[in-house]
Design a protein that fits this description.
The complex is a heterodimer of chains A (about 425) and B (about 425). Chain A is α/β, with parallel strands linked by helices and about 425 residues long. Chain A has helices at about 20-30, 65-70, 70-90, 115-120, 130-140, 155-165, 180-190, 210-220, 260-265, 285-295, 310-325, 340, 350-365, and strands spanning about 5-15, 15, 35, 45-50, 100-105, 170-175, 200-205, 245-255, 270-280, 300-305, 335, 365, 380-385, 390, 395-400, 405-415. Helices cover about 35% and strands about 20% of the residues of chain B. The chains are: A alpha/beta (about 425), B alpha/beta (about 425).
Chain lengths: ~425, ~425
């Protein structure tokens, strides 16, 4: 079985463009969450979130025609993938495009309301309700012809494959907040079994719009606070946590077969050792299968980048599972959650956390968990409240748990020849 | 480590022809069409007014179970088809390790309440009727939208229902790569078993895009047939006068199992999955590569994976959508892969009868491939009347044909350039 290493990191979040910008914000505890105004209403805020200000999609998508058929999620995906490619120093003629694929977490993309407005306005009956007969006629013809393509879940991976001519396996994993990390797990498998030399793997999501936010709110997952310091509201593992705060962003990692990476003299960030996934209450199953897959025991892990989604019930499940898996080694374990910096970013959340944990391994520092003071329950492990330098941080575990029950864990290790 | 062998031990289907595998298969062999006028919504003013709808479906056995008070059509079809497949395979969760029982599904997005969505938009419109007041939309949407319906939009919801109902605790995935989704799911589910990460996987797909935005979206792309007056003749893959695909819906599920696990519990074995190949065209959003670049390589990779040469293929279950471009390029690609022998290999498209079940298409086509091996009879491409110069293979026109079939190659190509080929073989 082939060994797989990380040779490129790409992230775009409210904390900035590039993995370094993300890592600096995470390390210094500088939250990008702020008040959101859908329109200039001049009063209060409509919501809080971590929005990417002044995103210039044109920087990554040079063809205006292409830009027109990309929902914001797709634009962010292309940006994240481009940043990872740039970081990997791969040149277009430096890889076999047949053996380079794309796999990412994505799902139903929110429509831009104004794009539908004209069509809907043309389809209303006298009762101001949609008249389906009018829609089939005047409504349909006032839609942009390529409208459907702008919102299909597999289009982000399609655009990335076209942009970099990646003709290998192409897949889109649509399982919610664990989707990004599960996509990376799948990429690991594809390279391990020899079906590709290189995979761009990650996720993208932008739900910081009235459609997406209202859906999260209705589902009861959104923190409902409407006053206070926006940066202090999102509190994973805290006994007063009240739900998540939404961010937007994309993260991609270049996963590469070890021999391929060494031959081209690539910078190796870390080795991907193991992956596990499960379902509802399967947090410990996912973590244990990742350990088994990595062929290491839990005492070899001293740092865990937690999902820490900020929903009490979910955080509690994660904490219990950590305690169960790490047992007596829990006391040596440092746990960190970074979502208060960049918000909950759905399909890209797990991938962003893996970028963070990879940077943390590289610097041998555990980032702080912002706004964490009082725990929901006795943990038995340490939740970092400030930057911690670890004595021995050889392996890291990264968790991604969807609030709907899906669970995934990945284990990475500092790369070294001696550690086969 | 030698990879484990993967066999199929259960199958289930809900299709426009019937709500079980046996009845669907019977109708396919009889050359029946499942296409008719759209009744799910009033499509009388749409350019396309026909589709392949699932009929006489009893949703009551699922609604209200496990706390699901609302289920999208994709979830309903998935649950029903999975129920049949699990029963067929005789899986008993009390007798297996459920942490080694997983799901890799290719479910499409669920029901989208367009009526409600449009009504909220209408009430949030600015005076000029050209733009939506976002503040107003936010307020109205939070007030009026139903959480359960929102959840059901997400393709992931299907695997949640399946995992919950069938008690799987192994790896859970859902992939959505348009028309290739369920084939890709089957291929990846097989890989999970091959590696030894699971003993049993529920796989397949479920989808319904027969809703106003789905039909409108495909109509705008001019991808759909508009043979509204002759619905049963609308889907005509490889025929010269084909004018687009016919949207349909349904669910198809296969139970994949590690060979020894299946033998130990004395399971019935339908066939073995031996090959999986996946590529991307990396060309355009909707058009396939004009020289079938990705399709050709997907077929070759699958045969390489199965450790067979093109000579071993007895039957090709085509993607065959009935669009001008797909059928022409698929034909061209098959000729590139099989050379002279291409004309001697029967290749049919059951989309001629079922229409295009989008994300669920590949799975129902694999079921048909498995039954072709079991029963020694190849389903036809119906509505094949006039030959097209660019499509000159043996499409098994109009009448099912008895034949000894050991190995089948099944193609699925997605919008967005994902190409998947699966190879299924008689178990021995």
């Amino acid at each position: 079985m082939k060994r797989v290493v990380i040779t490129g990191l790409g992230a775009i979040t409210a904390a900035g463009e590039g993995s370094s910008a993300l890592w600096e914000a995470v390390k210094s505890g500088c939250s990008a969450i702020d008040a959101i105004h859908f329109q200039d209403s001049g009063q209060g805020w409509d919501a809080i979130g971590a929005r990417i200000a002044n995103f210039e999609a044109e920087k990554y998508v040079t063809q205006r025609k292409s830009l027109k058929v990309m929902a914001r999620d797709i634009q962010l995906a292309v940006a994240g993938a481009s940043l990872a490619m740039e970081d990997s120093k791969l040149k277009k003629d430096g890889y076999d495009c047949d053996r380079f694929g794309v796999i990412m977490g994505s799902g139903v993309l929110n429509h831009e309301l104004d794009e539908l407005a004209y069509s809907v306005a043309n389809s209303l009956g006298d009762d101001k309700q949609l008249d389906i007969k009018k829609f089939g006629d005047a409504g349909l013809s006032s839609l942009f012809p390529l409208w459907l393509l702008k919102y299909l879940p597999n289009m982000p991976a399609c655009h990335i494959s076209i942009l970099f001519d990646l003709r290998g396996m192409n897949n889109t994993i649509t399982v919610g907040a664990s989707g990004g990390l599960q996509a990376i797990g799948e990429a690991l498998r594809i390279i391990q079994r020899g079906d590709a030399d290189l995979m761009l793997a990650g996720g993208a999501e932008s739900k910081l719009n009235p459609v997406g936010l209202s859906q999260y709110k209705i589902l009861g997952a959104l923190c409902g606070d409407t006053a206070g310091d926006p940066k202090k509201i999102y509190k994973p593992f805290h006994q007063n946590s009240k739900g998540f705060v939404v961010g937007e962003g994309a993260a991609f990692l270049v996963l590469e077969e070890l021999g391929h990476a060494q031959k081209r003299g690539a910078k190796i960030y870390a080795e991907v050792l193991g992956f596990g996934a499960s379902y509802r209450d399967g947090h410990s199953i996912a973590m244990n299968s990742a350990l088994k897959d990595a062929k290491i025991s839990s005492d070899q892990i001293h740092y865990l980048q937690a999902s820490g989604i900020g929903i009490q019930r979910e955080d509690q499940r994660e904490m219990e599972a950590i305690r169960e898996v790490f047992g007596q080694h829990s006391k040596n374990l440092q746990v960190s959650a970074s979502k208060p910096i960049i918000g909950f970013t759905g399909f890209s959340a797990g991938a962003l956390d893996l970028v963070i944990s990879t940077m943390a391994l590289g610097e041998q520092r555990v980032p702080p968990t912002l706004n964490y003071e009082k725990t929901i329950q006795e943990t038995g492990f340490k939740i970092s409240s400030q930057v911690m330098v670890s004595q021995s941080m050889e392996c890291a575990m990264t968790n991604a748990f969807g609030f709907n029950g899906q669970t995934a864990s990945i284990i990475t290790r500092v790369f070294g020849e001696s550690k086969k | 480590m030698t990879p484990k062998r993967v066999v199929i031990t259960g199958m289930g289907a809900v299709t426009p022809l019937a709500n079980s595998v046996a009845q669907t298969w019977k109708a396919l062999l009889a050359g029946q069409s499942g296409i008719g006028p759209i009744t799910i919504f009033d499509a009388s003013t749409f350019p396309t007014k026909i589709a392949g709808e699932v009929k006489n479906f009893d949703a009551t056995r699922w609604i209200g179970r496990n706390g699901f008070s609302f289920l999208g059509r994709n979830s309903l079809f998935a649950l029903e088809a999975a129920h049949e497949a699990v029963q067929d395979a005789g899986v008993d969760t009390k007798k297996i390790d459920t942490s080694r029982y997983g799901i890799y599904f290719g479910a499409g997005d669920g029901g989208f309440n367009f009526q409600e969505y449009a009504s909220i938009m209408a009430d949030s419109m600015d005076a000029d009727n050209n733009s939506v007041s976002l503040n107003q939309y936010w307020v109205e949407s939070v007030k009026r939208t139903d959480a359960k319906k929102i959840l059901e939009q997400e393709p992931a919801q299907v695997v949640h229902h399946l995992a919950e109902h069938f008690g799987t605790r192994g790896p859970i995935f859902n992939c959505l790569t348009a028309c290739a989704a369920s084939s890709q799911a089957i291929g990846e589910a097989a890989e999970i078993i091959r590696r030894g990460d699971a003993d049993l996987m529920i796989t397949g797909g479920a989808h319904s895009m027969i809703h106003p935005l789905g039909v409108a979206g495909f109509n705008l792309l001019t991808a759909l047939s508009t043979c509204n007056d002759t619905p049963t003749k609308a889907s005509r893959p490889f025929d010269k006068n084909r004018d687009g695909f016919v949207l349909s819906e349904g669910g198809a599920v296969l139970i994949l199992e590690e060979l020894e696990h299946a033998q130990k519990r004395g399971a019935k074995i339908y066939a073995e999955i031996t090959g999986y190949g996946g590529t991307a065209d990396a060309f355009r959003m909707t058009d396939p590569h004009p020289e079938g670049r990705g399709a050709i390589r997907a077929m070759r990779l699958a045969m390489e994976d199965a450790k067979i040469t093109p000579d071993a293929i007895d039957y090709i279950n085509a993607h065959g959508t009935s669009t001008q471009l797909n059928d022409q390029i698929e034909t061209y690609s098959v000729k590139q892969v099989f050379g002279e022998r291409a004309k001697k290999i029967p290749m049919s498209s059951i989309k001629s009868m079922l229409g295009h079940m989008i994300a669920a298409a590949g799975a129902v086509e694999l079921i048909a491939s498995v039954l072709t091996i079991r029963d020694g009879i190849i389903p036809a491409t119906i509505n094949y009347q006039e030959a097209d110069e660019a499509c000159d293979l043996d499409y098994v026109p109009n009448v099912a044909r008895p034949a000894k079939v050991n190995t089948v190659l099944s193609n699925s190509f997605g919008f967005g350039g994902q190409n998947i080929t699966l190879i299924v073989k008689k178990y021995s």
